[in-house]
Write a structure and sequence with these properties.
Layout: H1 2-5, E1 11-12, E2 23-26, E3 30-31, H2 38-52, E4 56-58, E5 66-79, E6 83-96, E7 102-115, H3 119-128, H4 135-138, H5 140-150
Parallel strand pairs: 2-4, 2-5, 3-5
Antiparallel strand pairs: 1-7, 5-6, 6-7
Length: 159
Amino acid sequence: MAAACSARPYTVSPSLKTEPDLRVELLPFSSAAADPAAAGAMETVTSDLLRRMGYEPVQPGAGAPLACRGEVRDFTFENLGQALRRSVRFKVAITRAAGGEKLYEGRGSGYSVDTYTGASEAQAAFAAAGGSRGSAAALARQASDAAWEALGALPRRSR
């Protein structure tokens, strides 16, 4: 798999490892994807992952010292005839809420292609997964993979 072989650039500030207040304002994510559910789906996955890593995601305006911004670059679930393609590409940054100093930046992706013996079998699987309207659920694994990859170098913290 090509993604497993490619290096992912990360920016990690040493001061993030010693930040005493682990609250992170989860700002609304931007999205270049055609799917209107893409940003919300990635916000949910990122919030859950930050919590698992020891951070405390909070709503914007809560006065947290850190802010998390995300950009969904691809959020695609499509039927290609005899195959279903799922693709998520994501970029995330954590900054100081005051001043905007970048403390962390990472990118991640999740991708899969399922092949079928015929177009009707692929169409049935596409419909069962919700079709293009059900892409957030159909892309759950790829969204999780992209978030884990993007946040992979983020220092783990304990509360």
